[in-house]
Design brief:
Elements lengths: L1 E10 L4 H12 L3 E5 L4 E6 L8 E12 L2 E12 L1 H9 L9 H25 L8
Antiparallel strand pairs: 1-5, 2-3, 3-4, 4-5
Helix pairs in contact: 1-3
C-alpha cells in the first residue's frame, strides 16, 4: 500500500563478516534483523513501529556497485485485517483508518534514516569503528 526504501553505502574494503555484523547491529533499532553472507536482508519490524491497523514487511539485498557495497532495504506498510474491517464496517468515517499505514510508513522512514546515518557514520574515516 505505502512503500519505501533506503540505501546504505558501505566501503568496498569491508569484509563480508564485517558488513553482516554492522548491518545486523545497525538495523536492529528497527526490529529483529538477519543479514546473510549471500547478501539478503530480512527484517522483522518491531511492534512499536506498527499499529493495530497497520503491518509492515521489510527485506533487502546487498550488492557491489562501482567502488562500494550498496545495501537496499525495501518496506511496505499496509492495512491489517482489523484495518480493513474498520474501514468497511464504519464507512465512510472508517476510511480514516487508511491513515494508519501512512503514519507507519513515516515512522519506518525516520527509523531507517537514523539507522542508515549511524551505519554510514561507523564506516566513515572519522567514524568510531576500526576495521
Amino acid at each position: 500500500m505505502f512503500r519505501g526504501s533506503s540505501e546504505i553505502r558501505l566501503p568496498i574494503s569491508m569484509k563480508p563478516d564485517q558488513i553482516v555484523n554492522l548491518l545486523t547491529d545497525g538495523l536492529s533499532s528497527l526490529g529483529a534483523a538477519a543479514v546473510s553472507k549471500n547478501g539478503s536482508i530480512d527484517l522483522e519490524v518491531d511492534k512499536r513501529l506498527r499499529s493495530t491497523f497497520s503491518k509492515v514487511s521489510a527485506d533487502g539485498k546487498i550488492r557491489k556497485r562501482n567502488n562500494d557495497y550498496l545495501a537496499v532495504v525495501d518496506f511496505d506498510a499496509s492495512l491489517t485485517v482489523w484495518g480493513w474491517v474498520v474501514a468497511i464496517a464504519a464507512f465512510p468515517i472508517g476510511l480514516l483508518v487508511f491513515l494508519s499505514p501512512l503514519s507507519t510508513k513515516g515512522k519506518i522512514e525516520d527509523a531507517l534514516k537514523r539507522a542508515t546515518r549511524d551505519i554510514e557514520d561507523q564506516t566513515s574515516p572519522s567514524g568510531s569503528a576500526s576495521f
